[in-house]
Specification:
Layout (H helix, E strand, L loop, with lengths): L11 E3 L7 H4 L2 H35 L9 H5 L16 E6 L2 H8 L5 E5 L8 H15 L4 E4 L2 E4 L7 E5 L6 E7 L2 E4 H19 L5 E4 L5 H18 L7 E6 L2 H4 L2 H8 L3 E6 L1 H11 L20 H17 L2 E7 L8 H21 L3 E4 L5 H12 L16 H4 L11 H19 L5 E3 L2 E3 L1 H16 L12 H19 L1 H6 L2 H13 L7 H5 L7
Parallel strand pairs: 2-3, 2-13, 3-6, 9-10, 10-11, 11-12, 12-13
Antiparallel strand pairs: 1-7, 4-5, 7-8, 14-15
Amino acid sequence: MTKSAVTPPPGVRVAGPPVAGVEEVLTGPALAFIAELHRRFAPVRNELMTARAVRREKIAAEGRCDFLPETAGVRAGDWRVPPPPADLTDRRVEITGPAERKMTVNALRSGAKVWLADFEDSLAPRWSNVIAGQINLSAAIARDIDEEIDGKRYRLPEGPLATIVMRPRGWHLDERNLEIDGEPAVAALVDFGLYFLRNAQILLERDSGPYFYLPKLESHREAALWNEVFLAAQAALGLPAGTVRATVLIETITAAFEMDEILHALGPHAAGLNAGRWDYLFSIVKTFRDVGPAFVLPDRNTVTMTAGFMRAYTDLLVATCHRRGAHAIGGMSAFIPSRRDPEANRITLDHVRTDKRREAGDGFDGSWVAHPGLVPVCHEVFDETLGDRPHQLGLRREVQITADQLLDVRSAGDRFTRAGLDNAADVLLRYLAAWLGGSGAVGIHNLMEDVATAEICRSQLWQWRHNAVRLDDGVTVTAQMLTHALDERLAVIREELGEAAYALGHWTSARELVGRLVLSDDYADFLTQLAYPLLDEG
């Protein structure tokens, strides 16, 4: 147990290992604030998690989902979200990355308009990472970072920096290192509560505010819970409703049917929606995993945003946002520029430019990149479209998107290849070994991989096995075939690394975990829930 100079409030226990900065972050008022949020909102969170499972079973039984008849009035209503605050008005380039020290400096000075400071998919929830992330963001807001890391100087320059939008963990996750009344704290409330309490006032003094990205929502009821959390937190600090502004990632298939309702549920706190493409594909597989071949996805790398069902999703998102006065933010470009290979770098930049031009042309107000080297390309493309305008909120497109269009997975094609299977197995093993060691954003084969991409990899392998998919080489995907493929990929990695480096990694645990994820008849809702007990706290 952590030895703290602060006596925790009754019912609160800091269960994590002693890590640097924990006494600075987990003060008495901070622990009391988290405990109050948890006691008030954890029971509702738990009910909503049960409701997710019930809804999933209903969708599986019916083989489809649809727009909600009971909220038709919200969809038809004439309402708009509040105008964006000044530093969230222009969001043409957003960079994403974990709230680690180097990333904090590189993201803020990258030239992007917004930094998604991530505590979710790209930050492995090692206790030291969680605590350090809070310290890093407070230091960034105070512009108090100037130090040498790994022989290189990291400092924040004078002048404009990217606006910070913090992403807490999803509603489904717990924080084992902090217990309240004998149970793990809700991780989303820990991340949100600490950041809000530590920084809201100083952000307002600096003409900014506490802004958030909300991940993994599956319904407007989950957005409504966040709205209640925001109201309670603001009241506790004496701040007016609407001080918090939140952008929701539409990265689940059920949320795609409730875009209007989600914005409406957030009330004065709504800011926009984002197209979270990889988690969206993962959600489709998870939700329809036992419905049959109509929902079997081809190779993940062949599913482009021009596929019919993905076009329907993004067209609906842009139209919904602009009808309501909210920003529509495009998806992630996960490419990593190459400094060593000019030709590979040219191809990467061409891919990114094409992707961003599609988004800008479709009406998006901005888009994501995962690497500072891609910020200029994204800027260039959106500058061409926007010019001096900060966004495209005035661009209104009336679209009539049906449930059948959103669910037309077959529009992605039918490429099931051995190369795709091997790539998914390879990325999954490499990523989980890194994640178990405490790294949540990992460069693999010139792409930045995180939990979202790992989720689609493992879901694809599970789905192909359960549907006995026949690959382009004539081989049918079975448990035996997958076992052989995983062991083969691990052997390649071992030879590539050498015995000494391999022995230092978490490869045995990663291989065991991958086996549980893709070879079990049961489907784990989130790989992080299985992986969390294996996470090396370091």
